[in-house]
Every structure is written in structure tokens, then in C-alpha cells.
Design brief:
By secondary structure, the protein is an alpha+beta fold. It contains two helices and four strands; from the N terminus they run E-H-E-E-H-E. Helix content is 35%, strand content 35%. InterPro entries: MTH1187/YkoF-like.
């Protein structure tokens, strides 16, 4: 099964990326995912179910530990042709 995760961390800071946002970005970029797209207002990544779920677990733990007060995420099952 292939999954797509979309997430944001809060609180936002438009002047400088907060530590929780940097940690979340590092987790996603280091994970064995493909189609990774990180940005100031939202992030997406796709991959196999195990890789996405492992990355989401690490993302939540590390972002909250780095000061995030809210993490919004959505996980969707995608077909191979939905890339």
C-alpha cells in the first residue's frame, strides 16, 4: 500500500522557521520516502505504508518535543498512478 502524508506544525513564524518546523523537515527528508515537498505552509511526502507510518511517528514525537503546540496531518491511501 502506498500512502501520502500532508502536515503542518504550529505555531507559525513567518520571519524564521521555528525549531519544530526544522525538526519536522529533517525527519521527512531523512525518511525513505519519495515525492517529498516541504514548504512554509504545508509539507507532503509519499511512500510505502511502513515508511510513511514510521516517519509520521517520528515526526509527531520530535516536532512536539521541539515545541510544536499543534501538528495537523492527513494521511491518504494513493494508487500507483496518483503520483
Amino acid at each position: 500500500m502506498r500512502l501520502r502524508v500532508e502536515f503542518t506544525t504550529e505555531p507559525f513564524d513567518l520571519d524564521e522557521a521555528p525549531p519544530h518546523a526544522l525538526v519536522a523537515r529533517e525527519v521527512i527528508e531523512a525518511a525513505e520516502l519519495d515525492a517529498v515537498d516541504v514548504g512554509p505552509f504545508g509539507n507532503t511526502a509519499e511512500g510505502g505504508a511502513d515508511a510513511v507510518l514510521t516517519a509520521v511517528d517520528a515526526l509527531l514525537r520530535k516536532a512536539l518535543g521541539a515545541g510544536a503546540t499543534r501538528v495537523s496531518l492527513q494521511v491518504n491511501v494513493v494508487g500507483e498512478g496518483d503520483k
